[in-house]
Design a protein that fits this description.
Blueprint lengths: L15 E5 L2 H13 L3 E6 L22 H6 L3 E5 L5 H12 L3 E4 L13 H7 L4 E6 L14 H8 L19 H24 L3 E6 H9 L3 H10 L18 E3 L4 E4 L4 H10 L14 H5 L2 H13 L3 H11 L3 E3 L10 H5 L3 E3 L6 E3 L4 E2 L45 E4 L7 H9 L3 E6 L25 H4 L6 E4 L5 H12 L3 E4 L3 H6 L4 H5 L6 E4 L16 H8 L19 H23 L3 E4 L2 H8 L1 H10 L16 E5 L12 E5 L3 H10 L23 H6 L1 H13 L3 H10 L4 E3 L10 H5 L4 E5 L3 E5 L4 E3 L18 H9 L3 H9 L15
């Protein structure tokens, strides 16, 4: 059995991870742990992880590992365990009992042995944290049902709003749900580890890919609906059917360029840039829905302007006017962008030399980064002689610890979504998180309000603020005032962690550079989350999640085969924030062992590049350029969305179902359900006898158009519920394309209590989205108090932590350094 090797001197050195998973989710989870220095041993059946044999651009030779496996397998060890060999199972049992962290997913003969279920593994290794990654979670009415990334995206609500209103909706290409599931599992393991090292008690983490997609595909749509309904406000028409962002991605004279015009100021600058300042006068155009009403006119002008300029010229002009814009990358181009080259966001694979994304963070102090080692060959470490391994530092107490992050205090200077989601994770799991805003310039997401600007305290009615800020305390400080900055430094001195996601120059302007912050306390962890990094050619560019999707290639893989790339729309915010949370947990583990603080840099673009890694790997290894293909995917055929007989409120037939067939058994099952045989292709003449020419995925892909027509006829005569009931019950992945505002009605999410209701002092009962990892050790309830009102806890915090008396607090409020009401004007979207 393997001698477990880790990365010496790195945050997770000495921690042993046993990987019982297969595929992308578990593979990415254990890679993230290996990158942090853990010793990862992958237990594989004799045939190996199915991901070893996966490649799109080339048929692999016998024994050859695919490029995606070579990336995800870096720095791991491989041990073959034959599920029918008692000797192998006994040896694996010994390794399991010595593990600190265990990653499990269904899909291999080994993991699916009854004696190797997550509960059984946890029973035999009670001091280990076990993460079980499944499509729907370990319990509930949908547990164990088949699913693909397409069907999960359909259930989660993201597909319904994406794409052109005159065509079928489109999913986000590249299987993002699987990557996100692995990321959430890794963050969950390291969060639980903070409790386990204090108590010596392990637990089971239940990771749901569906719940991960519900959290990340749309920005709190259920919160928007329920906040509106609770007080009798009309539910805002945030999703007028499907719509393309205007502006979004457009052709230039030499390629593509992407825009993200998110605020009123940005829209006004954009109008001036394209030579149409009169658009500023139309109030409707300040919203995406309003622009959709003039889509043809606007797009004609915008395309005329971009097509006459190079991508570089467009980006230069946008930079001058502070309009967020980015080049659109793909597998052939993204690794050559000057900023990504200069900052070494891509590094050579240690075996093949093919470029692959580097880790999406930079750790300071003595933590460094673990150099990647070549992925193991199948069974490469099966015959290694075992030896005692070092135990992680820090004695276990055996005591209780209700919340894993109790005792940590955080100064949260972030805004919008990517930054606050870091503090939100910390607050849900026990940290005291203080969200800092200015009474003059509060968190910009407050401008996405359900109220009119003239209404009293309209800034408190933003569902998008409520969503990622529950459990936090709220503090206001005017950072333009010297007294405000002095108080901010005093606050940071009382905290373990400081978070910020401004553009790099802001912190320097406030006199809060890393050197100044280090003087406050040596063990302070400072997490900075700029769009493109603290250095490099793009350092000062403004960037939103949509820009990260454009640069990374995520947008390139999303859309119709005959149309432009489409931005997935915002997924990179929680993707970035969760990668930052991973890096922060590594820093906390380093501090636990050494007492040292550090600067942690997590450029927003880094996480997106990792999730889109397959494109660069396929092109580098095989010369294959992956391209968008609507709702199809090389691993499944047929896979698509099909129109149903359902009609919307206007009487339009616009209901859809997702069906995805991954193997021959599922194809046979689908054909038994659909008894309307296709024609005129004789190879498909009798769908009940599909064996032979059309039994292989590649052959079915060749006949995809004909199969789509066949399935389309059958689905168009039936309701979505009827289709899903018949197809899913037969063992074929299927899903209804759900409105994102209605995901709280899904039986699986209701059973698992994924949505929780809190009582807000102004907005009343508010439904908040849960977290895609359930901890058997608690908390049982994540949202214990609502998001703070503006400055709600200012007096409490300044008095408690800094000793500011009532008289001084009154003076600070008179001078508008602090306050609970907005000072000046802030325009709503």
């Amino acid at each position: 059995m393997a001698t477990v090797r880790g990365g010496e001197g790195h945050p997770l050195s000495g921690i042993v991870v046993v990987d019982l998973s297969s595929g992308i989710p578990g593979g990415y989870c254990s890679k993230l742990l290996a990158d942090g220095g853990a010793g990862v041993v992958k237990l594989e059946p004799p045939e190996g992880d199915s991901l070893r044999r996966w490649a799109i651009g080339r048929t692999l030779a016998p024994g050859e590992d695919g490029a995606l496996w070579e990336f995800l397998g870096c720095s791991k060890q491989s041990v073959v365990v034959d599920p029918v060999s008692d000797e192998d199972l006994d040896a694996a049992e010994r390794l399991i009992r010595s593990a600190d962290l265990i990653v499990w997913s269904p899909g291999s003969r080994l993991a699916e042995l009854p004696a190797w279920s997550p509960a059984e593994v946890s029973r035999r290794a009670p001091g280990a944290v076990v993460a079980a990654i499944t499509p729907f979670g370990l319990d509930g009415p949908w547990a164990g049902r088949p699913a693909t990334d397409l069907t999960l995206q359909a259930w989660a609500g993201g597909i319904a709003t994406r794409g052109s209103p005159d065509r079928a909706p489109v999913h986000c290409g590249g299987r993002p749900g699987e990557w996100l599931g692995g990321l959430f599992a890794a963050v969950g393991l390291l969060t639980a580890w903070q409790r386990t090292v204090r108590t010596g008690v392990g637990e089971v983490l239940d990771v749901s890919l569906l719940e991960g997609l519900v959290l990340t595909q749309s920005m709190y749509p259920v919160t928007t609906r329920t906040m509106s309904e609770a007080v009798g406000l009309p539910v805002p028409d945030l999703w007028p059917g499907r719509s393309i962002f205007i502006p979004a991605i457009e052709r230039t004279s030499d390629g593509w360029v992407g825009f993200m015009v998110a605020t009123a100021t940005m829209w006004e600058s954009f109008c001036v840039m394209v030579g149409h300042p009169e658009w500023i006068e139309d109030e409707r155009l300040y919203s995406y829905a309003g622009r959709a009403t003039r889509r043809t006119e606007l797009e004609e002008v915008i395309r005329g302007w971009t097509s006459q300029r190079t991508t570089g010229e467009v980006l230069e002009t946008c930079s001058l006017l502070r309009v967020p814009a980015a080049p659109v990358g793909n597998g052939a181009t993204v690794a050559s962008f000057d900023h990504l080259v200069g900052r070494r966001f891509y590094v050579p694979n240690p075996r093949s030399g093919v470029l692959q994304p580097d880790v999406p963070y930079t750790l300071g102090a003595g933590a460094g980064r673990r150099p990647a080692e070549a992925a193991p060959r199948l069974g490469q470490h099966s015959t290694d002689e075992p030896r005692p391994r070092p135990r992680p530092e820090g004695p276990a107490t055996g005591g209780s610890c209700p919340l894993p992050l109790e005792g940590i205090r955080v100064a949260d200077f972030t805004a919008f979504w990517a930054g606050p989601i870091v503090g939100h994770h910390l607050a849900m799991f026990g940290a005291d998180v203080i969200h800092v805003e200015s009474p003059k310039r509060p968190d910009g997401i407050r401008s996405h309000t359900l109220r009119s600007v003239g209404d009293d305290r309209w800034w408190e009615w933003s569902p998008m603020f409520h969503g990622p800020n529950s459990n936090k305390r709220g503090l206001t400080l005017d950072m333009d005032a010297e007294r405000g900055r002095t108080l901010a430094l005093g606050l940071i001195e009382q905290c373990d962690v400081m978070l910020e996601n401004f553009s790099p120059r802001v912190m320097d302007h406030w006199g809060m550079g890393i050197d100044a912050l280090r003087e406050l306390r040596s063990d302070l962890i400072v997490v900075r989350m700029p769009a493109f990094g603290l250095s490099g050619p793009w350092r000062d560019r403004t960037g939103y999640a949509q820009n990260m999707e454009q640069v990374s290639g995520m947008a390139w893989m999303t859309g119709y085969a005959d149309g432009p790339p489409i931005v997935p729309n915002g997924m990179c915010d929680p993707l970035s924030g969760t990668h930052a949370m991973l890096a922060l947990l590594l820093a906390l583990e380093h501090r636990r062992r050494t007492g040292e603080g550090m600067l942690v840099e997590v450029a927003m673009i880094g996480g997106a590049l990792n999730v889109a890694a397959e494109q660069v790997l396929e092109h580098g290894a095989y010369g294959h350029l992956m391209v968008r293909d609507g709702n199809r995917h090389p691993s499944a055929a047929p896979q698509n969305l099909y129109r149903t007989a359902d009609r919307d409120a206007t009487g339009r037939q616009d209901g859809w179902v997702a069906i995805s067939v991954e193997d021959d058994d599922q194809w046979r099952a689908l054909c038994r359900v659909v008894d309307d045989p296709p024609s005129p292709d004789p190879a498909l003449a009798d769908p009940r006898l599909p064996v032979g020419a059309r039994s292989a995925v590649a052959d079915r892909r060749a006949a995809h158009d004909e199969i789509d027509r066949w399935l389309g006829r059958w689905c168009a005569a039936r309701s979505a519920d009827e289709i899903v009931e018949a197809v899913w019950a037969a063992g074929v992945p299927a899903a209804k394309v759900v409105d994102p505002q209605l995901t709280d009605s899904l039986p699986q999410l209701r059973y698992r209590g994924f949505f929780e209701v809190v009582q807000h002092p102004l907005t009343g009962p508010t439904t908040l989205t849960g977290y895609p990892v359930r901890f058997s050790g608690g908390p049982q309830r994540l949202h214990r108090r609502p998001a703070p009102t503006l400055g709600e806890h200012t007096r409490e915090i300044l008095g408690e932590l800094l000793g500011v008396g009532d008289a001084e607090l009154d003076e600070l409020e008179r001078d508008q350094v602090i306050g609970t009401r907005l000072v000046g004007t802030l325009r709503a979207r």
